[in-house]
Amino acid sequence: MLNFLPKWLVGCISMSLLALNVIFWVPILIVFSILKFLLPLGPMTRVLDKILLWIAENWISCNGQWMKLTQKTTWNVQGLDHLNYRGWYLVVSNHQSWADIFVLQKLLNRRIPLMKFFLKRELIWVPLMGLAWWALDFPFLRRHSVDYLKKHPEQKGKDFETTRKACEKFTRMPTSVMNFLEGTRLTKAKHARQNSPYRYLLKPKAGGIALAMSVLGDKFNSLLNITIVYPDGIPSFGDFLCGKVKRVVVRASSIEIPQRFLHGDYEGDKEFQSAFQLWVQDLWKDKDAQMAALIQETKA
Q1: What is the pTM of this model?
Q2: Sheet containing 176-180: which strands, arranged edge to edge?
């Protein structure tokens, strides 16, 4: 435990270990991914998928080790019992900080199948990490504004087609499809700009998980609903690396996905779209109330 050191030094150590972990695992990941690309044969693909999964899970475990070394965090976690490593999960969570990703990976690694995140297409150019996400079949989406789609209607629906193709790959082996429904990290400015009806959340976007359900609906064991709270204030990524996150509260619940939502046409059926959005908004309303209760509880 190195948290007794000056915070700037803890941050330097954390950043160095994080970088070394990336430099070690990503080239190995890319080598096997290239083999998978060059040898697209059924049995070989399945073997290489398992190898890529093993690499990714060990990479995440190593992140957990440097976190344990540099952090002195009190974890208050409930709801992770009875998860199935060999099942399919649709995972949703609130999003406040880059630290959220490390929190989720630490808690869920090897409890459920490897989480595949929906990523903005621009992130494919992130050095090393972009290649890693590509190698692991993370879906890259190009999100267009409403104004852009009015000028270029031919682009409408392309994100959904990309998501559909990515999700079809996930039918080969157990997978957890992860989506931050807010689409971006919470900030006061974004919250005000949206005029969000929630106290601790931005408005949720339902399209991504609706499409995931339409492709993989019968395979999903349940929707795993994660709520993350930082009782001492939302940390920046720098705060996280410097070991300044004293407490993390996480609540998880498995929610049965209503049958009527498993294979609907979100884009083409407006009635279905409205019903699905109401369902997601109810989830978010409950999550907002849960966050308020947890914050009050931790203050007390």
Answers
A1: 0.89
A2: 74-78, 247-255, 220-229, 88-93, 176-180, 115-117
